[in-house]
Amino acid sequence: VTPFGLIHPQAKPITFILDEDFMYYKYVNFHPLRNDKTIQMPLSDFLKFFEIIDHRPIIRAIPAIVDSIP
Length: 70
Known about the structure:
Distance between the termini: 31 Å
Oligomer: single chain
């Protein structure tokens, strides 16, 4: 799954939630609509993508899940 899939019109009803920890990175990496490649881009360009497609993410703190099994 890649956030770039949101470019498709049928993705409009999807709510994209981005962990606020992403905001601490200078660069992010994702698959470009195919899973045999990975692209790296500045976080600012990644966020600009959402503006361009008019599908802004909800940025929230997503707590880590700690495995309680010893």
